[in-house]
Amino acid sequence: MSNGVLIVIEGTDGSGKATQAGRLLEKLQAMGKDCRGLDFPRYGKPSATMVEQYLGGAFGNSPEAVNAYAASLFYAVDRYASYKEDWGDFYHKGGILVSNRYTTSNAVHQGSKLEGQGRADYLTWLSDLEYHRMAIPEPTLVVYLDMPTAVTEQLMAKRQEATHTTADIHEQDGAYLRRCRDNAKAVAQTQGWQVISCASDGVPRSMDDISQEIWDLVAPLLACPL
């Protein structure tokens, strides 16, 4: 039994993570690869109840109302439950997983609530908590989609209008989203994530261009043709 491959598509809210994760999964399936998709948090599942309460403002109407460590535990419990209930055996038998968000989202969002040594200590704690103490798989590859915050806010507003949904406490706070982006770029460097710029001069790049750049990173990993 050999472990599989876990590819994580990460980014701030509105950066196109779900779309690109879906595209990558479809491409792998079309090639006959043994693969599955993951999507976190798992809204509607019992293990995501605390996440939904947090994002809905039950514990305060701003992200800072819940400290980085407490909020991270909400998300970590949902990932652990997912691993145990759903995909752990598939991964350990060599399957390929494409995940829209993962532990890396805690690093992006909750890490932005801290500074300096406090942030470094938090990132060490987060990695130890999820990858060692909870023992969920560490990603094989993390692709971070970097989109300017002003662009993501416009895209999220259009999405909410089209889907008749309401922004959560993360999405409502522009200053928080900007801190998340700044934090993510720093974390990406220290954690070895692959960064893809999703806009040029403030204009979003085409989905096809971004998909191709992601594939250029994934293909060598899976010994696939470019």
Write up this protein:
With 226 residues, this protein is α/β, with parallel strands linked by helices. 53% of the residues lie in helices and 14% in strands. A 5-stranded parallel beta sheet has the order 2-3-1-4-5, sandwiched between helices. The protein has a two-stranded antiparallel sheet with strand order 6-7. Helix 1 crosses helix 8 and helix 3 runs parallel beside helix 5. The protein is globular and about 45 Å long. The mean pLDDT is 92.
Task: Write the topology of this structure.
Layout: E1 5-11, H1 17-30, E2 35-39, H2 49-55, H3 68-92, E3 96-100, H4 103-109, H5 116-133, E4 141-146, H6 149-163, H7 174-191, E5 194-197, E6 199-200, E7 203-204, H8 207-221
Parallel strand pairs: 1-3, 1-4, 2-3, 4-5
Antiparallel strand pairs: 6-7
Helix pairs in contact: 1-8, 2-3, 3-5
Quick overview:
The protein has 226 residues and is an alpha/beta fold.
The secondary-structure class comes to: alpha/beta
Helical content stands at: 40-55%
Question: What is the overall silhouette?
Answer: globular
Radius of gyration: 17 Å
Regions with little confidence, pLDDT below 50 for 5+ residues? none
Distance, first to last CA: 28 Å
Overall pLDDT, averaged? 92
Order of helices and strands: EHEHHEHHEHHEEEH
Instruction: Kindly estimate the percentage of residues that lie in beta strands according to DSSP.
Output: 5-15%
**Assembly type:** single chain
Comma- or semicolon-separated keywords:
single chain; 226 residues; alpha/beta; 5-stranded parallel beta sheet; two-stranded antiparallel sheet; 8 helices; globular
